[in-house]
Amino acid sequence: MPVIELRNITGQVLNDVSLTVEDNEILALVGPNGAGKTTLLNVIAGLTEYRGEVLFDGRNMNGVPPHRRSVGYLFQDLALFPHISVADNIAYGLKVRGYPRSTIEKRVDELTEALHIGKLKDRFSYNLSGGEKQRVAIARAIAPFQKILLLDEPTASLDAQTAKYFRSELSALLRRLEITTVFVIHDLLGAEEMADRIAIIHRGCIEQVAAPKDVFFHPGTRVVSEFIGMPNILDCDECTILSTGLVEVRSGNMRVILPYEGNAIRKLAISPHDIYISDVKPPGPALNRYKGTITEIISMRTLVRAKVMVDGNELLAELSRESFDEMKLDVGSNVFIIIKLRRLRYFEV
Amino acid sequence: MTFRKLSITVSFAVFALYGGLILSLFYFYDGVLFFDTLRSSRTLFSIRLSLFTATVSTAIAVLVAIPSAYALSRFRFFGRQIIDTILELPMIISPVALGAVVLVFFNTPAGVLVQEHGIRFVFTVYGIFLAQFITTVGIAIRLIKAAMDEIPVRYEEVARTLGASPARAFMTVTLPLCKRGIIASSILTWAKALGEFGATITIAGSVAMKTETIPVAIFMRLASADVEGTVVLVLILIGIGLGILYGARLLTGKALPV
């Protein structure tokens, strides 16, 4: 079954990229714009020139043209063929590969049913919504029994709620069909929802390849840490179950309450932009609300990051320059901080 | 006057210019002569010859233009700029000059070889094909290239990843998508071939009942000061040309890119 190996890939923005995608794995390529994510997909598909080696199951694919690589590719712009119907779009790959008509019809039915687009078979792309186009394009990409699938921003054209639902549905489908998948996504949360591992790419170099939790709790390089938003990592000294689905975690003298149903939490990750700062005591319950003192101010273009000492832990918080100026904060200022409950990430024992 | 009104007025002015010129033909129109001329074997031969040669040379020009336009539209290769410039030759030099170039060629050893051991072009129907072909192929390539440029390369990339070879991707995706453009280009090429005169008379001459196309016949009538006869042939040419263009517009359901 397909294992993708990239060895010392160089070309365009890519700089000596080596990466292995395991059989049936779903790997997310995450990185800033212009990092080389799409170029890397094009290299795997054989659509761009490169130096280095691409191997599928140990077989060197260098010089093998795209149509002989058996790699499905969902382009960001979807590019459904406008001159043929949805059913013909999905059947296209099967037809050019010479599958018999009965197989083509069966496969089209199977995929349209799996992706809930059965009623769209006779429609044309210009009559479809963004979400429907997305589903048709995915069905078309995997229809010719492809064992490798490349997805470039598969949920880019969907709203946040639909995207979340679609990601879980797609992930389940890919696992059921046992397709080795590499997908590009700019949203780290989206990557975490779908991927077995995340590869962080920056300026054409792979910075880290790890399971989503490992990326958050053990960022391999400063670049990765910056990219994932410089999360505050708290070591948990004690974990007390408060009631069903709710625990209190102690880190130093700081106590954090969060929803959790497992056995024990070892680390907590809190993104700086998930910590609110206020110069006056905020109203409401004192849940995850702390008093602290600003120890350092890091000024950026539109944002300000402040290090706040809270019960023996130094937390990095992020706020807009406007709020920062309004509150007239400085090193030594006493502030209140609130941690958003739902955004906490935990690392289990 | 608003810009909208100004632009519409200008377009009507152009229409009035052509319409006025066509109307002026009727000053010398003679109904009896029109039908006599239309029924004469010489005129019928010219119409048949014009339609036949324009259709054949258009078919050849479009067949040559499709792969050439695709290459120019999709690939970057050595000499691309030179080819692109040469294609404009029929537009920058007059058809007579182009015909003269062909005549000169047929007087070189290579040209003589072609004439004696291949096809005899000078003063034959093949000369008409050649004249129409060389004056229209560049335009056909230009028009078809413009249609292909409109089709994103991405569609072919998708087809390739789905298992289609480059030729298959072209035949099943690019070609159907620019079908309208190719049809429109073919019609314009055909119209240009039908009205071709300069190169035709230079290469094929004006032998009655042999190489006399409608434009050549018009010239011959005018040269002998037969204004009424000229008017009749001009009206026939205009009728055929406009009829075909209008019919094609109805068939393709879209305005031609003119």
Summarize the structure in short.
By secondary structure, chain A is of the alpha+beta class.
Task: Kindly describe this structure.
The complex is a heterodimer of chains A (349) and B (258). Chain A is α+β, with helices and mostly antiparallel strands and 349 residues long. Chain A folds into two domains: 4-227, Rossmann fold, CATH 3.40.50.300; 233-348, RNA polymerase II/Efflux pump adaptor protein, barrel-sandwich hybrid domain (OB fold (Dihydrolipoamide Acetyltransferase, E2P), Beta Barrel), CATH 2.40.50.100. Chain A has helices at residues 37-45, 86-96, 101-114, 130-142, 160-177, 188-194, 212-217, 222-227, 321-327; strands at residues 4-11, 14-21, 26-30, 51-56, 59-60, 71-74, 148-152, 180-184, 197-202, 205-210, 232-235, 238-243, 246-251, 254-259, 265-270, 275-278, 289-299, 303-310, 313-320, 334-339, 345-348. In chain A, the strands form five sheets. Chain A has a six-stranded mixed sheet, with helices on both faces. In chain A, helix 5 (160-177) links the parallel strand 7 (148-152) and strand 8 (180-184). The radius of gyration of chain A is 24 Å and the shape is elongated. Chain B is mostly helical and 258 residues long. Chain B has a single domain, classed as MetI-like (MetI-like fold, Orthogonal Bundle), CATH 1.10.3720.10. Helices cover 78% and strands 0% of the residues of chain B. Chain B has 14 helices and no strands. In chain B, helix 3 (41-74) packs parallel to helix 8 (125-149). The radius of gyration of chain B is 21 Å and the shape is globular. Chain B starts with a helix and ends in a 6-residue tail after the last helix. The chains are: A alpha+beta (349), B mainly alpha (258). The A-B interface holds A 45, 47, 65-73, 75, 77, 79, 81-83, 92-93, 96-97, 140-141, 143-144 and B 152, 154-155, 157-166, 168-169, 172-173, 176-177.
